[in-house]
Amino acid sequence: MKLEKKSIYILITYLIVYLLPSILNSFFKLTHPEIFNIQIVDYLAGACILCYLAFHDMPTNLPEKRRRSVGQNLIWGILGFIFVIVLQTIILRLTIQSGGNASSQNTTDLLSIVKNYPIYALIIIIGAPIMEEIVFRKVLFGNLANLLSFINPKVAQILTALISSGLFALAHSDGHFILYGAIGLWFCWLYHHTGRIQTSMMAHILMNSLVVLPILGL
């Protein structure tokens, strides 16, 4: 029961963190700098709260039954990052060849903010990846698999991987559902393979950093 309760707390907290800036803006009509500052504090604080909920006294779920060492976690985090870049490249090239648009309005908008307000990069590099891995991979993939394990543990993990990756793609809805769905599935596999959510977190953070840091001249 503790696993289910903590999963619900995590989802509720994530929803509050996600909606809070918009709610405050609707009441106080904030300026862009004020909104960005609130979002930064909100997302970083949210990431800390979710980490506490996810790692403090949290029962292990199905993917965490067999955990690899810290060294292996580090290696797979780097390999996972390399593969996700290759995966993105392949999918975007296929998208172009099929007559689709490879550009992402969501990414363009975020990078535009970072260019004019560099500290906003903290959300993209730290806050968002940490929260998304805890919500979409640890809770909606790993913990949910526990609830459905009465079917069959392997079937449960396949089903929840598809559910979490589909929701992950919808959360980034900008016309690239297949791309984000594939990224979500890959991060699920990394988590399952190592038994540590830190692996997919690392790959996710590195992936976002590769896009953001050049905008900052790094």
Structural notes for this entry:
Helix content is 78%, strand content 0%. The protein has 218 residues and is mainly α. The longest helix is centred in the middle third of the chain and has 28 residues.
Tell me briefly what this model is:
78% of the residues lie in helices and 0% in strands. It is mostly helical. The radius of gyration is 18 Å and the shape is globular.
| Structure annotation, total helices | 8
Tell me the distance between the termini.
46 Å
Give the tally of β-strands.
0
Roughly how many Å is the radius of gyration? 18 Å
Q: How would the global form be characterised?
A: globular
Tell me the number of structural domains. 1
**Structural class, from helix and strand content?**
mainly alpha
Work out the helicity level. over 70%
Q: Residue-averaged pLDDT, rounded?
A: 94
What order do the SSEs take from the amino end to the carboxyl end, as H and E?
A: HHHHHHHH
The portion of residues forming beta strands comes to under 5%
Largest sheet geometry? none
Low-confidence stretches: none
